[in-house]
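FW: tagging you since you asked about this chain on Friday. Here's the raw sequence from the shared folder, copied in full. Didn't touch anything.
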Amino acid sequence: MIDPTSIGTALTVLAVITVLVIAFGAALLSDMAMRRREDRAATPPEQAAAQPDEPAAQLPGSLQQTEELAAQAPTGAVSSNGRGPSNL
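HL: got it, structure written out here
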């Protein structure tokens, strides 16, 4: 027979774990929101609009060729796996 106190203990442990998961999730969301506000406050909108975009860093020769190949690669449904859509 199952001891009633073991069921109570299991439910208590489950409740504590659930509360901890919810607390850490809320803390994570709060931290992300706070960082977003700090980032927005660090640069006023009118100043951000006035600054020109920084030039992109130059890639080494082999990486630049890879980037060019990736830019020319087909991106359709057939190119992703070599077969056309089944349309079932």
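FW: The mean pLDDT is 76.
HL: agreed, and The two ends are 54 Å apart (CA to CA).
FW: great, closing this out.
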